[in-house]
Structures are given as C-alpha cells and as structure tokens.
Amino acid sequence: MAKELTSRAENYAAWYQDLVMKADLAENSAVRGCMVIKPYGYAIWEKMQSALDKMFKDTGHQNAYFPLFIPKSFFSKEAAHVEGFAKECAVVTHYRLRTGADGGIEVDPTAKLEEELIVRPTSETIIWNTYRNWIQSYRDLPILCNQWANVVRWEMRTRLFLRTAEFLWQEGHTAHATADEAVQETRQMLDVYADFAEKWMALPVIKGVKSENERFAGAIDTYCIEALMQDGKALQAGTSHFLGQNFARAFDVKFTNREGVQEYVWATSWGVSTRLMGALVMAHSDDEGLVLPPMLAPIQVVIVPIYKNAEQLEIITEYAKSIKKKLEDRGMSVKYDGRDTHKPGWKFAEYELKGVPVRIAIGPRDMENNTVEVARRDTKEKSTYQVTDLEIKIEHLLNNIQQNIYNKAASFRESMTWKADNWDEFVNLLDNKGGFVYAHWDGTAETEQKIKELTKATIRCIPLDAKEEKGSCILTGKPSTRRVIFARAY
RNA sequence: CGGGGUGUAGCGCAGCCUGGUAGCGCGCCACGUUCGGGACGUGGAGGCCGGAGGUUCGAAUCCUCUCACCCCGACCA
After folding, report:
1. A473 CA to B2 C1', in Å?
2. Which pLDDT does position A5 carry in this prediction?
3. I need a surface site. Which of A360, A385, A415, A460 has the fewest CB within 10 A?
4. Is the ipTM here above 0.85?
5. DSSP bridge pairs for A254
6. Which nucleotides of B are covered by protein (CB under 7 A)?
7. Could you tell me if A222 and A244 are in contact, meaning their C-beta atoms sit under 8 angstroms apart?
8. How many angstroms separate the CA of A346 from the C1' of B34?
9. Confidence of residue A32 (pLDDT cuts 50, 70, 90)
10. Model pLDDT for residues A232-270, shown as the tens digit of each residue
C-alpha cells in the first residue's frame, strides 16, 4: 500500500488514508461528499481543538451551543448573507416517516413543516436572533462566545477534507458596543489563528484582508490567513470577519449606550474548520506519508522492539516500558508497539505513514550497549543515543523537529513567492511555477473577476504588511498603490 | 448542470475488440523458517463480473435501457 504513495499533492488523498475516508454511503447519493474521520485523524482534531480552545479562553471567550436548525425566515433577514449561502443549503421539510402502500418507508406528506428548517451552513442568523434577547444595555456587552459544531454546505463539488458537505469547525460570534472594539476583536482573533498555525501546525501563514469578491456574505471586512501547499496552490486556513452592524440591523439587536441613546450592536465572527487538517497534511507530508508536527501528533514517540524470540521480547519489553514511562513523565505521548503480529520493518513503515515524529528502536545490541536507535520522521535521519537522560534528549529532538518542519515550510513558501510586473510574467508564473504571485491590481472587482476568468487565479488577500508602492495593474495598467497576492487556490 | 471516465474477490486491476468452466497483485487464514527497513516457502478461503431486459446452444465479453461512483468546470471554508 505504501508503495503506491509516490505522488505528492497530485494524489494527496493517499496521505489521508490513516485520517479519514469518504463516507461509504454510495446507496444514497444525497449524502455524497461526507467524510468519516477515523480515530487517528480525530485525535489530531482533538489536539487542535484543545489548543485553540485554550487560546480562545485566554482571550476572554466562552463556549456556548446553538441549534443545528435555523428557521428559513431567520436565514433570509440579512440580504447579502442569504444570497451568499442560498445555493448551498440543506433544507428540512418534514418531520416524520411512515410505512407506504408498498411496505417501504416514505416521507409522511401529512408531516410537512409549516416553515422549513435550514441545516446551519454557519450560525450568524440564529445566534444574532438569540443575542437580541441577551442585550439591552452597554453593560451587557461585549458578548464573546464560541461554538464548536458541525455545519453543512451543499457544495456542488466536494473534495475530501478541503470541502466536504458536512464539516466540523468552531465559530466565534461576538457583540460589541463600538465599531472600534469589534475591529480589534476581529484582528485579535486573526492573530490567534496565525499564532496557532505557526506555532502548533508549523505552518507559516500570511495575514491579510479579502477583496470584495472574496469577502464573507454579510461582512464589512473579511480577514484571513493564507497558507501555501506543496503543490503550489493556496489554501485559506482561517477567517475573521468584521460584520459591522449588518446582523444587528437584520435581527434588531440594539443597546442603550452610556448616553442613553439606542444603538445597533457591532459584530464579529471567526472560524476555522477540519480543513486545517487538510492544510496540515498537504503542507508537510512527503512520499513516505504524513509528517506531523510534534505538537499536534497524537503519538509523538513510538518504541519498536527488535527481537528474535519470546525471551528477548520479554526483556526488551520491560526495558522499553521503563523508557516509555520516563518519556511520559516529561509529558510526551508515547506508544510502545510490542505486537508480535508485525515485523519491525513493517512497523517502521506504518509509523512513517502515520507521521509519528520520533521512532525509537530497541534491539539486543542496544540492550548490551545501553543505547537506543532514534529515527526522526521529518529528515528520516537515524542515530544512536545513549539512554542516559534520554527523555531530555528526546524532548529536545521533538522541539527541534517542530522548528524544522516550520522552517522547511517557510523556505518552501519563500521559494514559491514571486513578483509579477506585467501580464506575460504573471501568467507564466501561474502556469509554470505556482505559489504566491505579488502583483499590482487596480482595486476593482471587475478586474479581479476578469483575472480569475483568464487565469483561474484569485486574490488570496491584501497582506496586512503590504508596503506602499506605486505600480500599475497587471491587467488594466491603471495605477495601484500596493501589491496583492494572487494564487490558484483550493 | 455541462465535458470526460469507471463499475469484475476486502483493496488495486487484467480479461471485453475477436462470446466457450473467473484471472493477477496486495491483503486474509494455517503451518514452517524468519525478525536491526514493509520476509520467504507450501497449502487454503474468498465472485449472482453494478442492475434489468435482449441476441445466442452458450454472455463479464455483443445490443438496449437503467443505477451508481470518480475526475474536470461553474460554486465555495
């Protein structure tokens, strides 16, 4: 099986085999595009969740939960929002089945809902409908809630991990007394996402703001972090929206300010999804399988015994378990694989496929010399360690691997970042190199649209750190004051 | 919804053109030898050839109709 894992992002689904599978629901075309997250994949998601959740709480947020079903009428109150999502909604129309005349099960036509329910594609509407009752005075603000949930978007075309019909995510929804405070919240959460991506996922990202075309339906400004995958395509890894007073107006959420004047509340929303796991895999993995950053790896260290007979196995097992305990006492997650059903070589390959950062092999030779063989997944280097202070050495190695994976991704991105100053150059870079192309743009939605039609490239973002620079639009030649990032994207 | 493609063992595929007892690799089971990079040998289990209809003495193979899935595009986190 591993032998087939030879292509890179071309066949990235192979990287996913330990994490997810397509939902096996072929009998029913209505659920195509769903995925099953396998235990190992879910373990990574849980690690992401707990890290993010802590970051949210450290910035003053609380978790809450809102209903899966949204009455159709709620959904249509914000005009841009409904327009953005209308084409991809799953709708519940009935609430009961019955046995039909032919003995089969059918939808009971007498159980038709008065008002259809939308399976949430995102929760702004139902949350703002709820916030109306929570907010009267400036003293009730801010409200800083996050929700861990699943959402459903009936995409015309799905792609495992990156665009599944149902996906898991978190969505933060905050309410503020002033625009300023809401903008600050938006920016703060963007920073949280960028920190998470870089520190935990070892994934360098660019912070930026979306152009009008790419903006979230109902937002004033959409901020994002953009990452580059190994095949040269960009991936939006997280978004944070400044929603202005759009949803407060739509749901009539007002508060009385210090001056006794009624005002609409200012809103933000922000989210990341299981797509992050796709990003993790596509950014770091190689032909041997996954490469997981130690901070998110469900198993950080695997210990594999090498032995010829049962007596040897027993001795090595005891030895290995003492090492396992020493590592665990330092907070590392360690698996000892003493299965007699697979050979060492098989296990080596399997854990490489799973992206386990460090592998320790212990054989009779090591037992004699007080050593272990240590192999790191990121570089595939093997070396022999003395067991003295092994836990400190391994801890150090894990940190080193985390950093190395980041550096590798960062230098890859750097090597795939270009500037284009005329159309031919621009098209040539997109067609032959891929990656991020910094180019001038005249700032109009029409031009962006035209460029997209001609090249399939979109403006990934206007980087927050973009320098002022005079130039002329890559397509129209009209004046521009700074470069934006173009790329083909997932 | 447009344009391509594919349905044969758990997985990946060959066989189809030119009809004649269902094949290969991996995986699985048993035994033995192995075990420091996905071991080897011997034996074995496993199929309504996506479904329906037709042609034929005979259909995985030819014809008709259907169903499903995959890829590309429009849409999108």
Report:
1. 33
2. 37
3. A415
4. no
5. A264
6. 1, 26, 34-39, 67-77
7. no
8. 14
9. low
10. 889 999 999 999 999 999 999 999 999 999 999 999 999
| Per-residue b or e along A117-140, where b marks 16 or more CB atoms closer than 10 Å to that residue's CB | bbbbbbbbbbbbbbbeeebeebee
Q: What is the pLDDT of residues A355-392, one digit of tens each?
A: 999 999 999 999 999 999 999 999 999 999 999 999 99
Distance, Å, A88 CA → B31 C1':
58
* Residue A345: other Cβ atoms inside 10 A: 10
pTM to 2 decimals?
A: 0.93
Stated in angstroms, how far is A30 CA from B19 C1'? Answer: 39
* CB hemisphere CA count around A444 (13 angstroms): 13
Helix (H/G/I), strand (E/B), else coil: A211: coil
**SS3 state at A204:** coil
| Closest nucleotide to A2 by C1' from CA | B38
Nearest to A202 by CA among A296, A274, A289: A296
Å separating the CA of residue A54 from the C1' of nucleotide B41: 56
Phi/psi of residue A52, nearest 5 degrees: -65, -45
CA of A158 to C1' of B56 (A): 45
A210, closest nucleotide (Cα–C1'): B77
Higher pLDDT, A165 or A306: A306
8 A C-beta contact, residue A470 and residue A478: no
**A32 closest-nt by C1' vs CA:** B69
Closest nucleotide (C1' vs CA) to A167 is B77
CB atoms within 10 A of CB A68: 16
Nearest nt by C1' to A364 Cα: B36
Q: What are phi and psi of A362, to 5 degrees?
A: -125, 120
Token code pair at residue A5: 């894992």
Reported as half-sphere exposure (CB side, CA atoms, 13 A), residue A2 has a value of 16
The C1' atom of B33 and the CA atom of A87 lie apart, in whole Å, by 64
Q: Which residue is nearest to nucleotide B72 (CA to C1')?
A: A157
